[in-house]
Design a protein that fits this description.
The complex is a heterodimer of chains A (112) and B (119).
Chain A lengths: L3 E4 L2 E5 L4 E7 L6 E6 L5 E7 L5 E4 L2 E5 L5 E6 L8 E8 L7 E3 L3 E6 L1
Parallel strand pairs in A: 2-11
Antiparallel strand pairs in A: 1-3, 3-8, 4-5, 4-9, 6-7, 7-8, 9-10, 9-11
Chain B lengths: L4 E3 L2 E4 L5 E6 L6 E8 L3 E9 L2 E5 L6 E5 L5 E5 L8 E8 L14 E2 L3 E5 L1
Parallel strand pairs in B: 2-11
Antiparallel strand pairs in B: 1-3, 3-8, 4-5, 4-9, 5-6, 7-8, 9-10, 9-11
The chains are: A mainly beta (112), B mainly beta (119).
Chain lengths: 112, 119
């Protein structure tokens, strides 16, 4: 079945440093979504990428979808304590509907 | 607009018991999905309901079941609880705004979850 892996599993950074998490799917994806889950919270939708090679920015966050549509990355510039949480990528099931296969997640900790 | 609500928020059960969790989607959302989140397995898809019909199902045993009502509210049931069923159960709703496009997926709006502990 479809598998979605993320690296690294954990990342500790000093505030102000950059952070990147990488997402790799075992199958080609029609799109990829990113979610953020704060400690003790629930996943919150960040963005969806659809086109091959697509790059989207949200303030300090840059999302990229690979040319082969099997990988994606999220880069945060100059991390802040508000960026703390676990970042998940998620790929859709090819059989229709809203079934998502979530990546393993990258837990980000930001130290002052 | 009110977000996705889940009840109860916390639940403690013992092995062998059964449990029913409830999810009320955002008003107007007709698709409801359920996920199990554990530290070891991450976020795993359980099932999705749309217009009272199960549209997708994950790889979970038959002890896990669900249903959706005409008002889009959904329940999931776990029978004969096992220790390994201890998890955060998350419900997500979506609006179905794809307009027939197959290349995009609806945004999932998650509820706060139900924390189930099986002793």
């Amino acid at each position: 079945g479809q598998q979605v892996m993320q690296i690294p599993q954990y990342q500790h950074v000093q505030e102000g440093e950059d952070f990147t998490t990488y997402c790799n799917s075992s199958t080609t994806l029609s799109n990829i979504q990113w979610y953020k889950q704060r400690p003790g919270g629930h996943p919150v939708f960040l963005i969806q990428l659809v086109k091959s090679g697509e790059v989207k920015k949200q303030k300090r966050l840059t999302f990229q979808f690979g040319e082969a549509k099997k990988n994606s990355s999220l880069h945060i510039t100059a991390t802040q304590t508000t960026d703390v949480g676990t970042y998940f990528c998620a790929g859709p099931y090819t059989g229709g509907g809203n079934k998502l296969t979530f990546g393993t997640g990258t837990q980000l900790k930001v130290e002052l | 607009k009110a977000g996705v609500t889940q009840t109860p928020r916390y639940l403690i059960k013992t092995r062998g018991q059964q449990v029913t969790l409830s999810c009320s989607p955002i008003s107007g959302h007709r698709s409801v999905s359920w996920y199990q989140q554990t530290p070891g397995q991450g976020l795993q898809f359980l099932f999705e309901y749309f217009s009272e019909t199960q549209r997708n199902k994950g790889n979970f045993p038959g002890r896990f079941s669900g249903r959706q009502f005409s008002n889009s509210r959904s329940e999931m049931n776990v029978s004969t609880l096992e220790l390994g069923d201890s998890a955060l159960y998350l419900c997500a709703s979506s609006l179905e705004l794809r307009g027939g496009r197959e290349d995009i997926t609806d945004t999932q709006y998650f509820g706060p979850g139900t924390r189930l502990t099986v002793l």
